[in-house]
């Protein structure tokens, strides 16, 4: 093979491995809820970040998240309160203590956030029973009547689903909300509860 052919092949190899030209985007689009009577808007990640840097006033997604997550957390605490008298596993007991230690202060933080922004904790216009991951009354009744290992297994199963629902809600508000503090709280929920889901699955 001639040196000329080798040189041409070498150039072709370099060209095939070259990095693609940037397409001018650096993140996913963000859906921004519109005001009353207004359609939602879709912004680039860069435009959404710039808009929030100028004004991170809460939008309806932020407020709804805080209101719903308070109730979501309260159900988790209702479940953990059953653990001391019914659980068999020391691991389940310790997990329940960690969940309560994390979520009770988060409830107070969200209540304070709503008050700071002049929003009522409850409006009465939402069906929070349909929130992702919420246990039904029948499931809670079954949990209340269970004991020992049967309780442990049901508690873990329900709490995994409950945590998955919280992560869904947090992920949605990160895409649709505008307030930096709410995004920070949502980030905490995703990180904390993702870790706990892994731990609970290992315990089943």
Automatic annotation (TrEMBL):
The UniProt entry, under Pfam families, shows: DUF305 (PF03713)
What are the leading ranks of the lineage? Bacteria, Bacillati, Actinomycetota, Actinomycetes, Kitasatosporales
Report whether Flavoprotein shows up as a keyword of the record: no
Instruction: Report the protein name in the record.
Output: Lipoprotein
Task: Output the InterPro entries linked to this UniProt entry.
Answer: DUF305_CopM-like, Ferritin-like
Sorted UniProt keywords: Lipoprotein, Signal
Stretches of the chain forming a coiled coil according to its record: none
Write out the biased-composition intervals (Low complexity). 24-33
Where's the DUF305 domain?
62-204
Residue ranges for the region (Disordered) are: 17-60
Top-level taxonomic group: Bacteria
**Signal peptide segment:** 1-18
């Amino acid at each position: 093979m001639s040196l000329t052919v080798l040189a041409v092949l070498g150039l072709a190899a370099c060209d095939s491995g070259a990095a693609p030209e940037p397409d001018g985007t650096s993140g996913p689009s963000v859906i921004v809820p519109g005001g009353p009577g207004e359609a939602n808007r879709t912004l680039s990640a860069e435009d959404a970040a710039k808009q929030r840097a100028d004004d991170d006033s809460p939008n309806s997604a932020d407020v709804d998240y805080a209101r719903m997550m308070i109730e979501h957390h309260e159900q988790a605490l209702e479940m953990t309160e059953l653990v001391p008298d019914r659980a068999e596993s020391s691991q389940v007991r310790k997990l329940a203590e960690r969940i309560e230690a994390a979520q009770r202060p988060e409830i107070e933080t969200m209540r304070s956030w709503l008050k700071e922004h002049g929003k009522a904790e409850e409006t009465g216009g939402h069906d929070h029973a349909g929130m992702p991951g919420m246990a039904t009354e029948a499931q809670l009744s079954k949990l209340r009547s269970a004991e020992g290992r049967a309780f442990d297994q049901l508690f873990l199963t329900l709490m995994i689903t409950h945590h998955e629902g919280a992560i869904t809600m947090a992920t949605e508000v990160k895409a649709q909300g505008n307030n930096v503090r709410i995004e920070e709280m949502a980030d905490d929920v995703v990180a904390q509860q993702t870790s706990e889901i892994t731990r609970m699955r290992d315990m089943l």
